[in-house]
Amino acid sequence: MSEATQDAPSLLDRTLAFADRVVPPPSAWAFALRIWLAMVLALYAAFWLQLSGASSAMVCVAILAQPKRGQALSKALYRFVGTIVGAVVAIVLIALFAQDRVLLLVSFATWLMLCVFTAHFLQDTRAYGAMLSGYTVAIIAIAHIDAPQAVFEAAVDRVAAIAIGIVAITFINDALASPSTWRTLRTPLDGALEATRAFARDTFTAGDPGSERAGALIRRIAVMRGDASAIAGELDDGPNRAAGARSAIAALYAMAASARAFGTAADRAPGPAVAEARVLCLDLTRDGARDAALRAAERLRDGLADTVGRGADLGEVLALQRAVDFARNAAFAQDGAEALDTGKRPLRDVPLPTHRDFPVALRGAARVGIAFGTTALLLIFAGWPATSFALVQVAATCALSSITPDPKAFARGVLIGMPLAALCAGLVLFGLLAGVQGFPLLAIAIAPVVFVACFLSLNPPTFGVGFILLVFFPVLLSPSNPQTYDPQTFFANALLVVMAALILFVTVRVVLPISPSQHRAFALDSARRALVDALAGEGGDATTRTSLNSDRLLQFAQWSSKSGAVRTASLDRAFDLARMEAAAARAHAELRRLASDPALADAAGAARQAIMAVDRRAIEAAAHALLAAGRGTARTTRLAIARAASDLATIANVAVTQGRFLRRLGLKGA
Question: Measured between alpha carbons, how far is 454 from 449 in angstroms, rounded to an integer?
Answer without folding.
Answer: 9
